Amino acid sequence: MDSAKPARHRILIADDSEVCCVLLAMILKKTDHEVRCVFDGAQAVAAVREEPFDLVLLDHDMPKLDGLGALAMIRVLKPGLPVVICSGTITPEQTARFERLGAAQVVKKPVDPLRLRKIVDETVEWHRRQHAAAARETEERTTDAGARGREGATEQRALETPLLTGSSKAARRLTQEFARIRNFKTAAVVEGPVGSGALDIAVALADSQDGVVGLCAAEEVTEDLLANVLAPKRSDLGATKLIVTGSQRLTLDQQAMLDHLLGAHGGGGARSPFRNWRLILCVQGLLGEQAEAGKFDEHLLLRIGAMTVRMPSMEDRRGDLALMGQAILRRIGLGRTELTRGAQDWLEAQTWPRGYREFHRTIEMACPLVGPEKRINEEHLKRARESEPTERGPLFHDLVVESLRETAPIDNTQGVRAS
């Protein structure tokens, strides 16, 4: 690339084959793209967290974290970043899973250089147009909210995830709490009513720091699990963030074990294993109420309570639902699909008794119902919501949870549902 000529796009290539990385980089540099290469999925996630890119070119079979796991993490960390899968060993089933997670395209190696350049250019430009359109829509819908709404829109662009989208009082408070604790050192708590989306925020918290993310249910927290998390052999992966779902079900013995670890190591001294471990408790309900009822150790609560995000209910987010819906479409890689004004009004008029998961799944399931115009209307949403309770196919949250459980340093088989 001519050093006097500015780069067209910044591309991240993740492939465990150094030869493939060199060849792909050479192809893209010939058309003035700036390229960075990494050699496993964990490095790809770290690079996306640390640097701005216009597109990620991702292999599937990689050490530490495969393509599916890396894509799941990137989708949470940077929902609007386009990802193209380029792999020579990918099955139709894996292709479907990549598409479910919002891959812009899936191409097989070896790929024709001209085709690769065209895919990269067209994908980046299309996503840029979509981002500009989304920014205009956000500005239009927040203008009436005055200065506070504009501040909310700015925070939304800084922290892209559907639950951090919007300009309501509840959205602003959630965004501020998230920003306050995102650099937590040892333990954090995400608590709220059933269906409030606590797991989404827990994953976003975990991904705001370097390292890998694992997930388990409260029932699986044992000394053996924690020993695996703290094992020296994992230190090369960076800090391990362990998300514990259903933490309101932790027994008093489990709580005492966690309290001992937190107290014994003082939150991250030079020899503390907490330098390479972060704990995030995902709670349905409020830990304070659990402690008052004698079901949660007050001493442990004092240690971790300051680093708490409290999730608002979906009812408190009613005015944000249209923006959240469009953010979900961007997250799953379907930003080209739009919600009509009627669909936006319908979303905000509904109650969502099963919470954020029901809302998210309804929008996902409406996407295949649209025609070539790629516009979701009220009828599409109604049909999707009617069939949502019986849908058994893996959707976004199912795939993210599966990827996180595969990353977790334990062998487990229990199902974990997104809260």
Specify the structural class.
alpha/beta
CATH superfamily of the domain at 145-313: P-loop containing nucleotide triphosphate hydrolases
Average pLDDT across residues?
81
In CATH's first tier, which class of the domain at 145-313 applies? Answer: Alpha Beta
Summed up, the helix count is 17
How many beta-strand elements? 12
- Helix fraction, binned, reads 40-55%
Question: How would you spell out the order of helices and strands?
Answer: EHEHEHEHEHHHEHEHEHEHHEHEHHEHH
Question: What this model shows, in words?
Answer:
By secondary structure, the protein is of the alpha/beta class. Helix 2 packs parallel to helix 3, helix 3 crosses helix 17 and helix 15 crosses helix 16. Helix 1 links the parallel strand 1 and strand 2. The protein is built from 17 helices and twelve strands. The termini are far apart. Among the domains are: 118 residues, Response regulator (Rossmann fold), CATH 3.40.50; 169 residues, 3-Layer(aba) Sandwich (Rossmann fold).
